[in-house]
Write a structure and sequence with these properties.
The structure holds 2 protein chains of 2 kinds. Chain A is built from 14 helices and no strands. By secondary structure, chain A is an all-alpha fold. Chain A has 2 domains: 38 residues, no CATH class; 230 residues, MetI-like fold (Orthogonal Bundle), CATH 1.10.3720. Chain A is flat. Chain B is 76% helix and 0% strand. The chains are: A mainly alpha, B mainly alpha. Chains A and B meet through helix 1, helix 2, helix 4, helix 5 and helix 6 of A and helix 1, helix 3, helix 4, helix 5 and helix 6 of B.
Chain lengths: 318, 278
């Protein structure tokens, strides 16, 4: 799931009408009432699918809710949090998630930048390449995980075959069975799948830059690498940071890739996989809710950063 | 010398373009190739099958309820998109065109919802779905998918609403049009391109969703395509039907690729409107 959401740019810039005379004020009161009526259905639905379930999850986190127990759950205080906190598997999943996020987003940024710079140059077939780059983004995550899972197959996989042929390895490797290698595999798939998103956002930023700047830099005799670091990079820093934080938010909640691609041993889990396993495989709804709440707290922190950065990035651009 | 350098530069650039294309397209190409192999041919690494066969494409529909899964995905994704767009148009009109007290906090709240990790609402949503008697049914998915499609559509449509000229609205107000008439008869027709873009992006998100679909359905017949593909298994645990899985993967991917290619430019503008411009 990678639909982007917005930054609060839209909340900042709107024209304010001058203080209205009395007759207009009645009209505007009517408009305000209409606004709330118009918003009502959306707010009711969001309250039902977001607000209520979130509050229930927080509540479950403090109870002994268990799916196999038909009795109403009882309040147990911080017990679930303590249990999760003392669970080495939880910390392994935290390390996995942070490691995955750090490496994936870094690679996506570098690769996305390279592809965006390529696409920003005029050449024959640019349109075709731009379309081709979008293909991985359109493929469902589960499907990409399956496609790559087959390519990473220990005996019949094309990746082992290629590496053997090129002499990188002597014997086939069980990519998805070994926790350390499966991390590499998961990162490879994520980078492949989400680099297009990064590319698009960076390309949009690059295309806003005025040509004159580059002509000036050229007159000054600056080489392409110098131009990139001294002119391009500082100018697109804002949009780039927004894109990075957005990807971080998405990567922190990763579920599908780990679930489908790895063996789901305790060593190769993401935080979301850990939480779901507690809830539905072990039926410990309370424990899982506690883990999910902790993940929520981490993501809420990053969201706050995103909102602040997003706003300043837009103000910078304006 | 200079000429040689320039030639070298162009060659490097050309090579770069080729490498990027190969990198992005190879996995899909390999899935197509694998889906056309059968029997032991699947276990030989060949760039193109010696005897391409469509057998896997037939088997995926006869051995698995894959037709049903496809139907489920289409139904769920379409209803989610229709409901989201319907609700979002009026919400976006209110947020984009009317100034009122509490608008900014509301917008921030809607934005925050779109960033929820799905796992954080999973247990509460599970309870809600069971309480409504929707467990293992498609409406359970439609309802839960509104969690991410609705905030997204509201956001993007609000952006587009804002860009429409003020004069149109003023003229309508002079004619005595109510906010409802302005929203539905003045602005809605102008928003059609935006509706297509937003609807398509929401459709793709709903089509691809996995966590809710995995948790809120149980039987093979109620599964959507991603869950069906993720859980597809063979006669034994160690015998995964890779040919079938690849055929199924190609079947769900091709329509998406076609849509993305057709609406390429719009998708790019929708994505950037959603993520950067707000």
């Amino acid at each position: 799931m990678s639909v982007p959401s917005g930054v609060p740019a839209a909340t900042t810039a709107t024209a304010t009408p001058a203080p209205p005379p009395a007759s207009v004020s009645q009209l505007s009161r009517q408009r305000v009432r209409a606004a709330w009526l118009f918003l009502l259905p959306t707010l009711v639905v969001l309250g039902m699918v977001a607000g209520w379930p979130l509050l229930r999850t927080f509540w479950f986190a403090f109870t002994n809710a268990n799916l196999s127990n038909p009795e109403p759950p009882q309040f147990v205080g911080l017990e679930n949090f303590a249990t999760v906190w003392d669970d080495p598997d939880w910390w392994q999943s935290v390390r996995n998630t942070f490691f995955f996020t750090g490496i994936s987003v870094t690679l996506e940024t570098v690769l996305g930048m390279m592809i965006a710079l390529t696409l920003n140059t005029r050449f024959r077939g640019r349109g075709v390449l731009r379309a081709a780059v979008l293909v991985p983004w359109a493929i469902p995550t589960v499907v990409s995980a399956r496609m790559w899972g087959w390519m990473f197959h220990d005996v019949y996989g094309v990746i082992n075959a290629m590496f053997l042929h090129l002499g990188f390895i002597d014997a086939p490797i069980a990519w998805t069975a070994d926790p350390r290698l499966s991390m590499a595999a998961v990162i490879a798939v994520d980078v492949w799948k989400t680099t297009p998103f990064m590319t698009l956002l960076l390309l949009a930023a690059l295309q806003m830059l005025p040509d004159e700047l580059y002509e000036a830099a050229k007159l000054d005799g600056a080489g392409p690498i110098r131009v990139f670091f001294k002119v391009t990079l500082p100018l697109i820093r804002g949009p780039m940071l927004v894109a990075i934080i957005f990807r971080v938010l998405d990567a922190m909640r990763v579920f599908d890739l780990f679930y489908v691609l790895t063996t789901n041993s305790s060593e190769s889990m993401s935080m979301a996989v850990y939480a779901r396993q507690q809830m539905f495989e072990f039926q410990e709804l309370g424990l899982g809710a506690a883990a999910a709440s902790m993940l929520f707290a981490v993501i809420a922190m990053f969201t706050a950063v995103y909102l602040v950065l997003g706003r300043s990035a837009v103000e910078e651009a304006a | 010398m200079r000429k040689a350098l320039r030639w070298l530069g162009r060659a490097t650039f050309g090579l770069l373009v080729v490498v990027i294309t190969l990198y992005t397209l190879f996995p899909f190409y390999w899935a197509v190739v694998s889906s056309l192999k059968q029997g032991s041919a699947l276990f030989e690494v060949e760039a193109w099958p010696r005897n391409p066969a469509w057998q896997n494409y037939v088997l995926v529909f006869t051995e698995q309820p894959f037709g049903r899964n496809l139907f489920n995905s289409v139904v769920v994704a379409s209803t989610v998109v229709l409901i989201s767009l319907f609700l979002a148009v009026t919400a976006a009109f209110a947020l984009g065109r009317i100034r009122f007290f509490g608008r900014t906090p509301l917008m921030l709240m809607i934005l925050a919802v779109s960033m929820f990790p799905q796992i954080a609402v999973l247990s509460g949503m599970f309870e809600l779905v069971r309480w409504l008697g929707l467990y293992n049914t498609l409406p359970a998915l439609t309802l839960s998918y509104l969690l991410f499609t609705l905030p997204f559509t509201v956001w993007v449509l609000t952006t587009f609403m804002r860009e429409l000229p003020k004069e149109l609205e003023e003229a309508a107000v002079m004619d005595g049009a109510s906010p409802w008439v302005i929203c539905m008869h003045v602005f809605l027709p102008l928003l059609k391109p935006a509706l297509v873009t937003t609807g398509l992006l929401a459709f793709i998100a709903a089509w691809n969703e996995f966590l809710f679909a995995l948790t809120f359905t149980l039987s093979q017949e109620a599964r959507t395509v991603p869950v069906a593909i993720a859980l597809m298994s063979g006669a034994s645990q160690y015998e995964l039907p890779w040919g079938l899985i690849m055929a199924a993967s190609v079947i769900v991917t091709v329509p998406l690729i076609v849509l993305v290619l057709i609406f390429q430019r719009r998708i790019v503008s929708g994505l950037t409107a959603g993520a950067v411009k707000g």
